[in-house]
Structures are given as structure tokens and as C-alpha cells.
Design a protein that fits this description.
heterodimer; A: 265 residues; mainly alpha; B: Rossmann fold; Alpha-Beta Plaits; 2 domains; six-stranded mixed beta sheet; 33% helix
């Protein structure tokens, strides 16, 4: 099994390099909103010394960390799988004695993220030079603690993204439905603004939803802004959500396949 | 155009001809297999579009209906029929991509649609236009991936690859990115990827589609040799009759989802077109009216100016004798009608 993942990695990594121009486009799309928010909020915070207790440096460190965390947790499954379901090319993968999503789609995601991260380094360093962030609160321990949070975020994001993609088994409107899903993520993940600036209701809801693992939670842990008991509680929640997301994905995948093999796309 | 060959009723195989109580060597068993698709349907035009938004109408399309056949281990069987006959649907059911609406099928003792890993490791489905290969990397990388997926040891992998290389003359094309391969080269790589795990059962859907004559011939020779070396069971569809005549002793014909013929390729013409073609060249070269001897068939230039007569097979001797005594015959040949034409006719029965 390990060899399958290793070879999948080789193929997918090589494939990603074939799409350098494509990747740059993605990167621009990816970077533009965090950078705009970064500029806006630091300006606002500077003009009135803080916003809701967040200083200009808090915003700079938040968005610079977000760039990395978001790259790691964002799921691209819909872009690599939905069309295969719709045009029937998924068939070729179903003939292989492995689970196509939990092997090749997963590795495809990882290869894409790894390359994005590499391409992002110079941009990130440029931004850091420009905004001069103070990362004094980041410690080896906070980085270490962030690893399980990011892994849970990647896992949950991948499984929920794959589940949303499976909607393609039933409807061709899968991209519209995914836009709706994206809006929910934006609201509850802290993608555009730190969750602490959101209305209390949203913050309370977000605490119990899986989406904070995509951005807000790992960022807060890295930046040392979360007390240990809160970190522990979140990890517990994360594990439960991961289990739920896995069960949900497997169920939807199974019934989607049943439909696929009934209609013969 | 008038059909040149008179074709009789296509015989339906009866259960008496083949023993359906199953010998243990049957690799593929298909019993009363059916597949019905529900297809949404509406009239053209705006009003119909609005109506269909509220009320969906569906039509049942019976792609495969009550089809029965068995294929023994090591057989190469041609699976023929016009477009839309249900060939691909059947192959997809046999390889586990579709589950049947009715009846059942067993392949190597497995129920295909369960898609058990052991089943998938023992079969392959190669479809002309679909690809098993990653588009952006050389086929060699996809083959290495398949080695891992099918759990082949390094020794087995190297040996099979060397064999496939020898049979298909893969050579340098394995190292080119798949997107840069010609259609023929890609088909070879598809076959290599589909056969690397040495499947015992091969379902091939149009394996030579779009290839030039040389490439077609090479693929055919390869399949024959692969079957000889491994004893694999092969069920293939093709629109090229040359594929069928070169590879298959037995053919199964389906049309509109129903089985029309299952039997020997050579028996087919005897059963559905029991006729012979007599080619006659007369000494004075001028075409004569031979219609009192049999049905005159439009000639092709390649037949050295002979006139072609189609006659019932059991009267061929008598008619030949009459021709020889009545006319100044310079040359006379007796042939079977081309198998292409016979199959063609069988499709349309």
C-alpha cells in the first residue's frame, strides 16, 4: 500500500509540474483576497491603534499565517473529480483494485498543495519584508501543536470536499452547489477575517463546526493565541468531525457509485 | 442499393445446442442478462422545455435484453453488432462498471458489479478512447504505478514488461509523455497498461479503432500471441471484420439488445447465407445476361472483369455444369460470400 502512495506521488508530482502556467494563475487567485484584507485591516488597525483588541501586527501575522495554512487545507477535489464523474472517465479508475479517491485523488491534492507552497515562498518573503511582522509569539511548541490541527483540517476539508464533489453523481449543477459550500466555509473558517471579529452568534456556531480547522484554529494555535484547554477541546472535536466526515464520504460515495453503475455515465 | 446477398432467417441458439448446466471451465457466464436505461425525453421548442421543467418524462431504453452466452477458458470470441446494439453495455456489465437490471453474470466465478479486488486484478477492460494512462507523464510512469496497484513483484513486472515490449514493440514510446503519442502508439501503451497484470480475462472494446492497417495488424498479431502464451479468455468488439476473421473462431452477434447468433464464424455464412458466388469470364469478353442461372451481383473491378453470380449453395454443382455446357467459358471460380457481407446482413435481420 505504501508503494502505491509512493508511485502515485511520483506521477502526480511530475504532472503538477506540467501545469506551471496554470499554477501561477491559481496562485494569483489564491493570494489576492488575503493580501487585500491584509492591507485593509492593517491600515484600519494602524489608524485607530486596534480593532476589537487586534493590533496591526495581529492582522499581519494572521494573514501571513493564513496564506500557508489555507494552502495546506484547501481542497481541490471538485476540480479533479467532478468532470470525471460527469463524462464517465471515472470508469477507468473504477477498474483498478484500489479506492480511487482515498488514493489517487488524495495524492493529487497533496502534490498540488506542496507545489503551491513552494511557489508561494518568494511571495510570502516579499510580503514579510513589506509588512515587517513580529512573529515573537510563535514558539516551537506552538508550531508542534499546530501540526495535528493542520492535519485534521486537511483531512476534514478533503473528505467534505470529496463528499460535495460526489453530488456530481446526481446532478450536473455540482459547481453551483459547491459555491454555496464555499460561502459557508468563508463564513465559519476565518478565511477573510479572524473569527473574533465576526458576530458572537457566528463565533459560537463556528466553535462547534469543522470549518474552523481549515484556517482559524491552526492559525490561532501557531500564533499562541489559544489556551491549552481550548486546544485540547478543539482536538477532541476535530477527531469527531474527521470520523463523521469519513463516514459521510464513504456513504455518499457508495450510493453515488450505485447510481453511476445504474445509469452508466 | 439492392442487397447483393440473400440472407435467410438468423438462427437463434437454443439451449439444446449449448449445455447451460455449465461445465467448470466456463470463464464467462451470462444468463438472461438485461439492462434498461431510463432516458429523459422531451419535444423540441420552448414550451416543451418549460413543461419538462415541471414534468419529466422518461423513456425506457432496453440496451440489453435477456442475453445468454457462455465463454470457455482460453476462447477468443468476437462480439459483434451495429452501433447501439448493446455491446459496450454488456462489456461494462461483465467488467463490473454497470449493474444489470435483470439476469446475472459471473466472470471467473465472481459477480462483476461487486468489484472485488481479486476480480479486478484478474480482468481488464480496454476501451479504445478511454485512457488508463496519465496524460502528462510518460507511459513508463503509469506502468510503474500499475505495478504497485496490482502488487506485482519487481521480477514479474520486468518479465511481463519485456514480453509486452517484444510483442508490441514499445521501445522509446514508453518514455514520451502520453499527450505526445500518436493514436497508434497510445493504443499500444493502453494495451500494455491494461495487460501488465496478466489478466485472465480480457474485455476489449474496439481495440483497433482509428489505427492504420499496419498498427491494426500488429495489435491483432499481439492479441493472438498473448492468448497463445497465457491462455487468456478474450471477448472483443470491433467494427473491423479483419480483426474478427483473424482472431475469432466464434462470434456472438447482438442487435437491438438481443442475441442474434452465437456460433462458429465459418458456420455463420452456411447458416444465414447458404449461397456461393460463381465468377464467370467468357471468351468473347462481352458481358452476357446470366440472370437465368442465378442472381447477378454487381462486380468489383478487382475481380478481373468476371461476372458474379449468386446461387444457392446446394445447386452450385448443377449450375456450374450448365454454365460450362451452355457458354464459352474461359475461366470460372467458386467462392464463399465475403464474411463481412454476411455479418453485415446478419446485423440487419
Amino acid at each position: 500500500m505504501l508503494r502505491i502512495y509512493q508511485r502515485l506521488w511520483q506521477v502526480n508530482w511530475a504532472e503538477q509540474w506540467q501545469y506551471r502556467a496554470n499554477l501561477l494563475m491559481y496562485l494569483l487567485y489564491w493570494l489576492v483576497s488575503p493580501i487585500v484584507y491584509l492591507a485593509v485591516w492593517t491600515t484600519v488597525a494602524k489608524s485607530q491603534s486596534s480593532v476589537n483588541g487586534l493590533t496591526a501586527n495581529d492582522f499581519v501575522t494572521y494573514y501571513l499565517t493564513l496564506l500557508v495554512v489555507d494552502t495546506l487545507t484547501t481542497d481541490i477535489t471538485i476540480h479533479v473529480l467532478a468532470y470525471k464523474i460527469q463524462d464517465g472517465t471515472l470508469s477507468a479508475e473504477l477498474l483498478k483494485p484500489i479506492h480511487p479517491i482515498l488514493t489517487s485523488t488524495l495524492i493529487n491534492n497533496l502534490a498540488f498543495k506542496m507545489l503551491m507552497l513552494m511557489v508561494m515562498i518568494p511571495v510570502w518573503l516579499g510580503l514579510a519584508l513589506l509588512f515587517q511582522p513580529d512573529f515573537g509569539a510563535v514558539t516551537p511548541l506552538s508550531l508542534l501543536l499546530a501540526i495535528p490541527a493542520v492535519v485534521l483540517g486537511m483531512g476534514i476539508s478533503f473528505l467534505l470536499g470529496a463528499t460535495m464533489t460526489c453530488v456530481a453523481f446526481w446532478t450536473t449543477r455540482v459547481y453551483a452547489i459547491n459555491e454555496f459550500y464555499w460561502a459557508i466555509i468563508v463564513l465559519f473558517a476565518g478565511k477573510f477575517v479572524p473569527l473574533s471579529l465576526m458576530p458572537p452568534v457566528v463565533q459560537q456556531l463556528a466553535r462547534f463546526l469543522p470549518f474552523q480547522f481549515f484556517d482559524y484554529l491552526p492559525i490561532q494555535i501557531i500564533l499562541g493565541r489559544l489556551p491549552p484547554d481550548e486546544i485540547l477541546r478543539s482536538f477532541g472535536m476535530g477527531v469527531v468531525w474527521f470520523g463523521l466526515a469519513l463516514a459521510l464520504f464513504l456513504a455518499v460515495w457508495r450510493s453515488g457509485l450505485k447510481r453511476f453503475s445504474a445509469v452508466g455515465a | 442499393m439492392k442487397a447483393p446477398y440473400q440472407v435467410g432467417q438468423v438462427p437463434m441458439p437454443s439451449n439444446g445446442e449449448r449445455d447451460l448446466s455449465a461445465s467448470k471451465t466456463d470463464t464467462v457466464v451470462v444468463e438472461a442478462l438485461s439492462k434498461t436505461y431510463q432516458v429523459p425525453e422531451r419535444e423540441g421548442g420552448f414550451a416543451a422545455a418549460v413543461r419538462s421543467f415541471f414534468i419529466r418524462r422518461y423513456r425506457d431504453v432496453h440496451a440489453v435484453q435477456q442475453v445468454n452466452f457462455r465463454i470457455g477458458s482460453g476462447e477468443i470470441v468476437g462480439f459483434l453488432g451495429p452501433n447501439g446494439a448493446g455491446k459496450t453495455t454488456t462489456l461494462k456489465m461483465l467488467s463490473g462498471l454497470l449493474y444489470p437490471s435483470g439476469g446475472q453474470t459471473r466472470v471467473l466465478g465472481f459477480t462483476p458489479w461487486e468489484r472485488k479486488a481479486d476480480f479486478l486484478r484478474a480482468i481488464t477492460l480496454v476501451m479504445g478512447q478511454r485512457n488508463r494512462l496519465s496524460w502528462d507523464v510518460p507511459a513508463a510512469d503509469s506502468l510503474l504505478l500499475n505495478q504497485a496497484i496490482y502488487r506485482l513483484s519487481d521480477a514479474d513486472y520486468q518479465q511481463t514488461l519485456a514480453e509486452l515490449d517484444e510483442l508490441l514493440e514499445l521501445g522509446p514510446i514508453l518514455r514520451k509523455p502520453v499527450r505526445n503519442l500518436s493514436l497508434g502508439e497510445r493504443m499500444k501503451c493502453e494495451l500494455a497498461a491494461g495487460l501488465l497484470h496478466r489478466p485472465q480475462v480480457l474485455f476489449l472494446d474496439e481495440p483497433t479503432i482509428g489505427l492504420d492497417i499496419t498498427a491494426q495488424a500488429r495489435i491483432r498479431a499481439f492479441l493472438k500471441e498473448y492468448n497463445r502464451r497465457t491462455g487468456a479468455t478474450i471477448l472483443l468488439t470491433s467494427h473491423y471484420m479483419a480483426d474478427v476473421t483473424a482472431l475469432c473462431e466464434r462470434i456472438i452477434i447482438i442487435h437491438q439488445g438481443q442475441l442474434k447468433y452465437d456460433g462458429g464464424l465459418t458456420d455463420l455464412s452456411r447458416q444465414i447465407a447458404p449461397v456461393k458466388l460463381i465468377g464467370v469470364a467468357l471468351r468473347d469478353a462481352a458481358p452476357a445476361d446470366l440472370s437465368r442461372y442465378g442472381v447477378m451481383v454487381p462486380n468489383e473491378p478487382s475481380l478481373d472483369g468476371k461476372q458474379l453470380l449468386q446461387v444457392p449453395a446446394d445447386e452450385v454443382a448443377a449450375i456450374t455444369a450448365r454454365l460450362l455446357s451452355d457458354l464459352p467459358v474461359q475461366d470460372l471460380t467458386i467462392e464463399d460470400p465475403p464474411i463481412e457481407a454476411v455479418i453485415e446482413k446478419a446485423f440487419h435481420e
